Amino acid sequence: MTGMNRLAGRFRQSFVENVRFAFRAMWEHRLRSALTTLGIVVGVATVIVMVAVITGFNNLVISNFQAFGATRIGFTKYRDHFGPPGPQSEEERRRKNLTIADVASIRGSCPSAGAVSALAGYFDADIHVRNGNAEANSPYVLGTDSYYPAANAYGVAQGRFFTAAEVDHHAFLAVIGSEVQEAIFPGVHAVGRSITVNGVRYRVLGVLDRKGEQFGYSPDNKVVLPLGTFVRQFGSQVRKDGVRISCVPIRPEAVGRLIEEATAVLRQRRRISFDRGNDFETETPDQLIGQFRAITGGVTGAMMVVALISLAVGGVGVMTIMLASVTQRTREIGIRKALGARRRDIVRQFTTEAVTLTGLGGVGGVLCGVLVARGVRAAVSSLPTEVPLWSALVGLLVSTAVGLFFGLYPALRAARVDPIEALRYE
Fold it and tell me: Does the pTM exceed 0.70?
């Protein structure tokens, strides 16, 4: 045990001595060392900023989805996806609409269902929602039933939502989003007042909780009508696209079971044989989050390539400087060998110097990356960048590995210097 302690002490002393030599060499060539580490700093900082932006964006997207219910399940006629809508396939165009009767069947036949709601939407620039001369800014209109708040994780900030009786009797009532309220009832309590939707008069029954902007559109800029009333005014939209179905399970762990039960109900109602796939789409927050992460994964890969190129350029610079350093310190190497230094001692010395050089570049890159990420967060409040601890550790590890890889050849070259020739070197 004493021998092991002595060996460890000797190794520690040798390492400290090599680090001291490395700092002295870098100090003697300060400008050269700073320029050499610049590529490492840029590469590591790029990695830190990239991870911070992607992590912050992912967290923002996840929170946006969960704002509408982490266990919400949707059944739709067409597939939803990120980005601009692409052309629908012939199979999608031939699909039958989902109907209000489908919603009732799921509600009555699925024991795992906690709430099931039908939704129909009208998104058009010709929608005009007014209170006197005040008009909302391009809102959209939804038609739904009394289960909408429970099935879509929505609360009512003022007033109340429709009752089942009001939906059944096609009442001319409306529940508005907070953005619509601010536009047409600024500083005024909206509940009980009247609005017009494309000239049809409705009484405001409530105001929904604010959700905030989601992926470039505002869910707060809408008017919600009882489904039957919506069909009366915007029936062509329902006849064209049918309804969307939104449901939540009685317990969070029953999501999978509810999907199976509701899928079985819809397949039976739509007379889909066992050997055919579904002619409708099922969506959950996890599926949409997965689609989003697939997109950001491609962006991350491209940025990683840029960072690796920068680190490789920095590594080549380290190798060039270390080779020049070996040439300049040939006499020093000869003296060390004449005093008993072995080849492995010379290799350790120059490898430690290269690793120290890139390690300092890694520290600088981490600091720059954190500062830039904080600057982005301060400048763009909607993008809460976040620097995970692992990204800083990876940055430091990669910078150290670059020093080890690109510093090894110069170190081996220094170790092969002939001591006699080195002592003669001028």
Answer: no
Tokens of 166: 């009001």
DSSP code at position 68: T
139, 223 Cβ separation under 8 angstroms: yes
Cβ atoms within 10 A of the Cβ of 307, count?
A: 23
- Residue 10 identity (one-letter amino acid): R
| Domain residue ranges in the chain | 15-63+291-424, 73-283
Q: How confident is the model at residue 268 (pLDDT cuts 50, 70, 90)?
A: very high
- The pLDDT score that the predictor gives to residue 118 is 93
pLDDT, tens digit, 9 for 90 and up, residues 3-25: 555 545 554 555 566 566 666 66
Do 127 and 197 contact (CB within 8 A), yes or no? Answer: yes
What 3-state class would DSSP assign to 180?
Answer: helix
Q: How confident is the model at residue 84 (pLDDT cuts 50, 70, 90)?
A: very low
* Structural element, H or E, at residue 71: none
Q: At what angle do helices 30-66 and 389-415 cross, to 10 degrees?
A: 150
What is the average pLDDT score of the chain? 80
**Integer Cα distance of 145 and 423 in angstroms:** 93
Q: What percent of the chain has pLDDT over 70?
A: 77
Nearest CA among 62, 52, 74 for reference residue 292: 62
Q: What is the DSSP letter of 246?
A: E
Residue ranges with strand state E in 179-333: 194-197, 200-208, 222-226, 244-249, 281-283
pLDDT tens digits, 48-60:
888 888 888 777 7
Pairing of strands 200-208, 173-176: parallel
Q: Compute the distance between CA of residue 57 and CA of residue 305 in angstroms, rounded to an integer.
A: 20
Distance between CA 195 and CA 141 in Å, rounded? Answer: 13
Question: Under a CB-based contact definition with an 8 Å cutoff, are residues 184 and 130 in contact?
Answer: yes
